[in-house]
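Dear colleagues,

As part of the handover before I leave the project, I'm documenting each prediction I ran so the next person doesn't have to rerun anything. This entry is a single chain, and its sequence is reproduced below.
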Amino acid sequence: MAYPRSFLGLCLASFMLVAAPLIAALAYSAWHSERLAEQSRHAVFNASQAARASRTLVNRISSLERLAMLNAPGLDPDLGRVHASFVLVAQELLQLPLEEDQLGALKKTMAQEQSLYDLLTAPRSGPRGAARSAVAALAADLAENASEVLAISTRVADREVLRLRAEAESVQRQLVLLVIFSTAVALALALALTRFIARPIAELDAAIRQLGGADFAQPISVRGPEDLKTLGERLDWLRRRLVELEDEKNRFLRHLSHELKTPLTALREGAELLHDEVGGPLSGSQRRVVAIMKDNSIKLQRLIEELLDYQRALHAAAALAPRRLALDALVREVARSHELAAQAKGQRLDLELERVQVNADPDKLRSVFDNLIGNAVKFTPAGGNVSVLARSSGDEAVIDVIDSGPGVPAEERDSIFDSFFRGRAKSSARVEGSGLGLAIAREFVEAHGGKISLLAEERGAHFRVALPRRMAA
């Protein structure tokens, strides 16, 4: 099935296809309603014609009966007018759709009226009494049939009502079946067209997710109307551009690492040779200068490595690989790697971990907790305490890392998670940090949809990580 040229055309065509069976059902209903209305008008006309003609015919019968009872000379013109009117009205009744018994009663009445008229207008050659008796008998029979003629209108009306009722019930059943059928067809078309319309939208969504996940290997192709195909081509151009930028960035970082590490390695080796007095004995002041050179070369090398690690961490935060894991076991594993450092400083590392299941990337969370616990051990003085707590709070998992060190000054709490920020608090470690650890931790936590914060404490530092137990799609 080919797509229209535009997405708007696709939506309009789909709407027309879905509406077609409903419009057809509406047109069929309107046609049936008009047909039923026409039948109703015809039935009312027939009933009114029957009622009018029946009453007129009864009136003519009454007039003939009165004239017959008079049976006087000079009434022939009146008899002719009444007879002609009777015949005309009877012919009108014969044009109506009468049943067999109604038609028989009408024809019998017409025959009796004709016989009475012939008798009244015939020359009187026989005894007068015999003629009067025959006229009276015919008039009596005609009067008896007048009630049957009058009932014709009522029976015609009843029959038309019954016929209309049956027709209306039949039309109602047909319309109900038609509505059910047309609705089912419309729903089937809507479902099929929904999948047809949603396919290019789903492909666009998958392409955007692919780019958001830093997956630039697969080309992007969108099937659908021309405007959506063009949008897919632009996304594929963006993918190729991102690949180029990523390659350029990686190339720059490799060159930077190589260009900086090569002279730095030579500088470190030279400082160590001087420190080991390979070139000759050093005075006290010279030894101090060499020690400064050696320490700062180590510090510079670590800064370069952490800068590269930070760039890799930013890239990794956009591409999580979540799975179901036991958060307490992960935190316990990370804390175990810092036990020796804590014991060397005479610190007590307390763990209070409840069993908590989360859906997360274990490597990213391991980096977060390694940084927090490592900082707590590093900044806590000898003999201090470091506490790590894990618990479940509603739909979140909460991890607290609390130490008894100098804490974070109030004016630095808003900047502690910024890249390359280093506060005034000093640790007992030999090499000062680069200020990237907490920035990387924040990137990883927020990538999971969580939040990392520093709580205000009078003594020591209190970091809290809140993670959703189920990551949003």
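The first strand starts at residue 323 and ends at 326. The beta strands are 323-326, 348-353, 357-360, 385-393, 396-403, 451-455, 462-468.

All the best with the project,
I.
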